[in-house]
């Protein structure tokens, strides 16, 4: 096996890596499938606020059978604390009409969501499915929204007025430094500014929230039960999950590799800074494949300059996962 | 999390900091002067080495990434179009006038403007439309939850839709009933034609002459005769010409029978060139006279120098014909000089202008095809009977040559020598596999319940200026969305979808965890050796 263990925290700041290792070690000692009562992180963290934010559960929403993350804090947490990368699939707010860089929501692989569930870091949020007959308007919430909007409008109007005043003052001071006579019209404008200034409603800036804002009814949130897992857990899923778990524990970053003909792309560090080294193909330990399959994989790896890694979880949990890499070599 | 788990789900919400992503008025105001450029990404490193430099770069990269990702959409109230989500119909109705997007998206009904759910969601993400539900504005998350369901379209389909829209394509929902059928296309019932096909001016066939002129047994008669008959028919009543050819042909035969005695009596001197010597058998009244018995005397050949065949073609127009030599005519068939100008007008004397393709085909045929008349043995035949005997002799001869071990077994050769008349014919006979096209036998395929479906019509980006929602024309491609985990489309699905799509190619968009790849299948024809 040609993998180097990189559990020595070379990936990110040392503290973070250690935290991940700690967490993973804790996970290993727990039984699978139960949501866990965890003690807050140990002494490395200061402040209760921070502690709470770490233990705050990540909210996973499901669209169809696809798990999505919406809040930026959640995205940041899973990436920096747990090494879960996911894929951004929405439009980017800054430039929505391009495909190079996308924005929220973050789509998770099934293995990533399952890891979140198994470590108890996530809760499942049921979506806001519209009940067709229930078009009743929640009057209280609507009133609070209108108030909020009005407040925002007034504030912005005030800020606009102040800014205009500042502009005029700057004009005055810069241009008519020594001449007190000719800046009279500007002075007059300044004094009458308050009365003559108008800030139309249409000029107000309005936010189009990405994640669910407080306005609106509160959705039902609960711990993720085994019954929510809509997809069948067949053998293939199990094999993939075990490989994912093992690689994640060793500190590798994992994304999906459909376009490369494999199951996962393995990065030695955060995908933002490093290229992928391996293409992982999950193979059940007792399966048989014709040699042509391996030839295809080897060719593929040679073309994209990545090593193909065949991953097979052993029969027993304790023995871990067996890795085999394919290297194309000549007969010398 | 420990706290939350203890208190229960309802309480958990209240503890959450919901408003962390809601911007304050000052932030909103400051967002007017936000930068709209995307930062460029630097080069990646190969291996993590734990250095400070690398970790610093990573930290900065991540900070920039989070800054971009967490940025919220802030728009001027005046530039937003207000809309409302209608869950019953799964559409969004516009409350204020539509903007520029109306050119390619949405539809009108009963005076109101509507958007499909995926269009509305895309416009929400772009920050052009603010959708309300129950008097409150929807966030993008809520938009995804409400507008993407199995009643509208799935998340994967929406991902393909928005991917294409971001690239600039015009994407509409596919409507199977709006695809013009092959028949409609052939009849040109499709409103917009891509390019008018101008066929070459081919030789137009004039109305075929009535049967009396077109004698079935024309083999045995010269043009003269035909013309003469025609002349007779024009003289005769209309009804006669309407009758079946046989009745009119009986006239000459009758007359021939009547005149046979005369001919006999006249004797057949060798000076006069006669068509035939033997008198007509009386029972040939019923049958059309095709029996041209070869004269008993061998060596009697036609002397064409003494027979005049009038040329009525374009190059030598004649309007009057002389009376033919009675010796050339069948016995008892009188003939006289006549004026054929009326009949000439009904002939199609236009020069045949062949298209380039036809000329090329003719050239090719000239190389390979051998005209029958060039065969020496055929030329030595004096009449049809000779020729037929020659053919029979030849087939008998070739039969004798056939080896028994080939032809008497259960498995026989596919073709016999001499059976094929051209190279193409031969290839057809020995061909084991017929070329098949994608749309063969595709008409009757029925969709099974879980099968793949065409989701969208895609029109190209550069047609935006001329695009009309009421008459979009032929799409550039049709999109079928499939998942990476699902099966590869089998031949049956390919045929069914290709047929359903008509003459527009079908593209398969495969969605793999956010990444989209496009595949299409094109029919390929193996080149043929020669065209036939």
Question: How would you describe this structure to a colleague?
Answer:
The complex is a heterodimer of chains A (332) and B (532). Chain A has 332 residues and is α+β, with helices and mostly antiparallel strands. Chain A is 36% helix and 17% strand. Chain B has a six-stranded mixed β-sheet with strand order 4-5-3-2-6-7, covered by helices on one side. A five-stranded mixed β-sheet of chain B has the order 8-11-12-13-14. A two-stranded antiparallel sheet of chain B has the order 9-10. Chain B is of the alpha+beta class. Mean pLDDT of chain B is 75; it is low at 1-19 and 193-298. In chain B, strand 2 and strand 3 (91-94) form a beta hairpin. In chain B, helix 5 (117-126) packs antiparallel against helix 6 (140-147). At the A-B interface, helix 3, strand 3, strand 4, helix 5 and strand 6 of A face helix 1, helix 2, helix 3, helix 4 and strand 1 of B. Strand 6 of chain A pairs antiparallel with strand 1 of chain B, so a sheet runs across the interface.
């Amino acid at each position: 096996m040609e993998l180097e263990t990189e559990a020595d925290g070379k990936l990110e700041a040392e503290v973070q890596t250690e935290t991940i290792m700690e967490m993973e070690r804790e996970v290993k000692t727990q039984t699978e499938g139960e949501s866990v009562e965890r003690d807050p992180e140990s002494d490395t963290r200061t402040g209760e606020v921070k502690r709470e934010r770490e233990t705050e559960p990540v909210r996973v929403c499901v669209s169809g059978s696809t798990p999505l993350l919406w809040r930026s804090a959640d995205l940041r947490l899973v990436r920096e604390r747990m090494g879960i990368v996911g894929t951004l699939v929405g439009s980017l707010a800054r430039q929505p009409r391009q495909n190079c860089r996308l924005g929220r929501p973050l789509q998770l692989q099934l293995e990533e969501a399952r890891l979140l569930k198994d470590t108890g870091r996530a809760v499942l949020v049921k979506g806001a499915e519209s009940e067709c007959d229930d078009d009743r308007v929640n009057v209280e919430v609507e009133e609070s929204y209108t108030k909020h909007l009005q407040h925002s409008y007034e504030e912005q109007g005030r800020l606009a007025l102040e800014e205009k005043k500042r502009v005029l003052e700057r004009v005055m001071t810069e241009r008519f430094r020594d001449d007190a006579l000719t800046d009279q019209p500007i002075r007059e404008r300044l004094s009458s500014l308050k009365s003559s200034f108008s800030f139309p409603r249409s000029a107000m800036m309005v936010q189009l929230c990405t994640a669910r804002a407080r306005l609106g009814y509160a959705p039902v949130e609960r711990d993720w039960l085994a019954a929510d897992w809509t997809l069948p857990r067949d053998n293939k899923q199990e094999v993939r999950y075990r490989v994912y778990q093992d690689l994640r524990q060793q500190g590798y970053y994992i994304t999906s590799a459909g376009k490369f003909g494999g199951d996962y792309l393995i990065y030695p560090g955060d995908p933002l800074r490093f290229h992928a080294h391996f293409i992982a193909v999950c193979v059940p330990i007792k399966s048989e494949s014709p040699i042509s399959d391996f030839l295809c994989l080897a060719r593929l790896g040679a073309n994209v300059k990545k090593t193909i890694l065949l991953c097979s979880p052993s029969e027993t949990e304790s023995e871990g996962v067996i890795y085999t890499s394919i290297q194309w070599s000549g007969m010398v | 999390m420990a706290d939350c788990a203890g208190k229960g789900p309802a309480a958990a919400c209240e503890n959450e900091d919901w408003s962390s992503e809601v911007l304050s008025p000052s932030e909103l105001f400051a967002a007017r002067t936000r930068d709209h450029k995307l930062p460029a990404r630097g080069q990646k490193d190969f291996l993590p080495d734990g250095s400070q430099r690398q970790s610093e770069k990573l930290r900065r990269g991540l900070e920039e990434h989070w800054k971009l990702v967490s940025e919220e959409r802030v728009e001027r109230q005046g530039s937003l179009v207000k809309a409302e989500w209608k869950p019953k119909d799964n559409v969004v109705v516009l409350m204020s006038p539509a903007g520029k997007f109306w050119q390619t998206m949405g539809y009108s009904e009963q005076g109101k403007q509507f958007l499909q759910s995926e269009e509305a969601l895309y416009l929400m993400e772009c920050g052009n439309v603010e959708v309300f539900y129950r008097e409150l504005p929807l966030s993008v998350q809520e938009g995804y939850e409400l507008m993407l369901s199995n009643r509208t379209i799935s998340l994967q389909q929406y991902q393909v839709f928005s991917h294409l829209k971001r690239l600039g394509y015009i994407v509409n929902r596919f409507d199977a009933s709006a695809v013009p059928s092959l028949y409609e296309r052939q009849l040109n019932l499709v409103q917009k034609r891509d390019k008018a096909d101008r066929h070459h001016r081919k030789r137009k066939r004039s109305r075929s002459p009535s049967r009396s002129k077109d004698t079935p047994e024309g083999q045995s008669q010269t043009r003269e005769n035909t013309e003469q008959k025609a002349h007779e028919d024009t003289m005769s009543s209309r009804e006669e010409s309407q009758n079946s050819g046989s009745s009119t042909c009986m006239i000459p035969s009758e007359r021939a029978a009547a005149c046979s005695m005369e001919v006999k009596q006249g004797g057949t001197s060798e000076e006069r060139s006669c068509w035939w010597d033997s008198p007509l058998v009386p029972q040939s009244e019923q049958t059309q006279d095709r029996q041209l018995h070869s004269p008993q005397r061998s060596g009697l050949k036609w002397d064409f120098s003494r027979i005049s065949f009038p040329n009525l073609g374009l190059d030598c127009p004649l309007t009057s014909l002389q009376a033919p030599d009675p010796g050339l005519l069948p016995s008892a068939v009188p003939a006289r000089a006549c004026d054929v100008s009326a009949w000439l007008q009904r002939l199609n004397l236009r020069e045949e202008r062949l298209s380039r393709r036809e000329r090329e085909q003719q050239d090719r045929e000239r190389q390979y095809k051998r005209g029958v008349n060039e065969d020496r043995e055929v030329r030595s035949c004096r009449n049809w009977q000779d020729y037929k005997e020659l053919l029979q002799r030849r087939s008998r001869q070739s039969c004798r040559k056939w080896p028994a071990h080939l032809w008497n077994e259960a498995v026989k050769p596919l073709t016999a020598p001499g059976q094929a008349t051209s190279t193409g014919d031969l290839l057809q006979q020995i061909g084991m596999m017929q070329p098949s096209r994608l749309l063969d036998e595709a008409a009757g395929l029925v969709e099974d319940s879980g099968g793949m479906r065409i989701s969208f019509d895609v029109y190209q980006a550069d047609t935006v200026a001329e695009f009309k929602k009421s008459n979009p024309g032929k799409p550039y491609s049709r999109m079928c969305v499939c998942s990476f985990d699902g099966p590869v489309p089998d031949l049956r699905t390919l045929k069914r979808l290709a047929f359903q799509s008509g003459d527009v190619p079908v593209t398969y968009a495969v969605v793999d965890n956010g990444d989209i790849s496009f595949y299409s299948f094109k029919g390929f024809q193996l080149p043929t050796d020669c065209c036939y």
